[in-house]
Write a structure and sequence with these properties.
Blueprint (H helix, E strand, L loop, with lengths): L7 E4 L4 E6 L2 E8 L2 E6 L4 E7 L26 E2 L20 E8 L2 E9 L2 H6 L4 E9 L3 E9 L5 E7 L2 E3 L6 E4 L4 E4 L2 E4 L10 E5 L5 E6 L4 E8 L3 E6 L1 H6 L12 E15 L4 E10 L1
Antiparallel strand pairs: 1-2, 2-3, 3-4, 4-5, 6-11, 7-8, 8-9, 9-10, 10-21, 11-20, 12-20, 13-17, 14-15, 14-16, 16-19, 17-18, 18-21, 19-20
Keywords: Isomerase
GO molecular function, one term: carbohydrate binding
Catalytic activity: alpha-D-glucose 6-phosphate = beta-D-glucose 6-phosphate
Length: about 290
């Protein structure tokens, strides 16, 4: 995505503007350290390109930007649950309109804060008062932090994931390491070598991964360190050809240039009492 070509709606500062993408409002960052784009629909990072380096985030060339469905690619915010724990799948945050709360900047980078709070519509899906904040820190690295706060009187259980799609040169030449000795696949726990390679569909939750996992992107001659905190698993996903062909918002060969490595609380195991908060984060470092 060429973020510099997006039509400008409003100039907020020297480095931050609000732009339009097929009707969606996008916060655009153009800073000496990096460029980035963040959709207010879904609170979703769509692009992160450190200066002088390749695009880090994968976006589907057929992604739907109408606001009628989740955006395929970027960093979807799966919250307040991950997967099919309830309806809708992956929660409602990724199809909700977030609010631009504030932005701060200096010579080192830009921090964008987005917020989401409960509404009658969310309470009909999930009967809790909440406040969620996304802190997106853009510099030589990208850090996304999801802060969940219980704004009600009764306890609530939350899960979720920062479902990062990484842009890679060739999935056949990609390896993810530091994944620990166990993963869950189709509900079954299996032993792991700590490394994932790709010769077909992969959809696994690694439950013992290191805080930092490494994506070896050999085709682009780089490796990407992904530092996760507040999680209890790392989800590794590539749909492979058959699933890609069944997705209206992914090109048939789209699976060749993407891999997901997600910081996740996969089982809604975080319990928050009234006023308590939890932070789930992922930081992306390209080398």
């Amino acid at each position: 995505m060429d973020v510099k070509q997006l039509p400008t709606l409003a100039v907020l500062s020297d480095y931050v503007t609000v732009c339009e993408l097929d009707g969606l409002k996008v916060v655009r960052v153009i800073h000496p350290k990096a460029t980035a784009a963040i959709s207010l629909f879904g609170g979703q990072v769509l692009s992160f390109m450190p200066t002088g380096k390749k695009e880090t985030i994968w976006m589907s060339e057929k992604a739907d930007f109408t606001g009628n469905k989740a955006i395929r690619g970027g960093v979807p915010v799966c919250w307040p649950w991950f997967g099919k724990a309830a309806e809708p799948s992956h929660g409602f945050a990724r199809t909700s309109e977030w609010t631009l709360n504030e932005h701060r900047e200096n010579d080192k980078g830009v921090i964008v804060s987005l917020t989401l709070s409960d509404t009658p519509e969310t309470r009909s899906i999930w009967p809790h008062a909440f406040h969620a904040e996304l802190l997106i820190e853009i510099s030589d690295t990208l850090k996304v932090s999801l802060i969940s706060t219980n704004a009600g009187e009764s306890e609530m259980q939350v899960g979720g994931a920062l479902h990062t799609y990484f842009n890679i040169g060739d999935i056949h030449q990609t390896t993810v390491t530091e994944l620990g000795n166990e993963y869950i696949e189709v509900g079954e726990r299996k032993p792991s070598t700590g490394k994932a390679t790709f010769e077909g569909e992969v959809d696994r939750i690694y439950t013992q991964a290191a805080e930092t996992v490494i994506i070896e992107d050999a085709a682009n001659q780089r490796h990407i360190a992904v530092v996760n905190q507040g999680n209890n698993g790392v989800v590794i996903w590539n749909p492979w050809q058959a699933l890609a062909e069944g997705m209206a918002d992914m090109a048939n060969d789209g699976f060749l240039t993407m891999v997901c490595a997600e910081s996740a609380v996969y089982d809604r195991s975080v319990t928050l009492q009234s006023g308590e908060s939890h932070t789930l984060s992922t930081e992306v470092i390209c080398k």
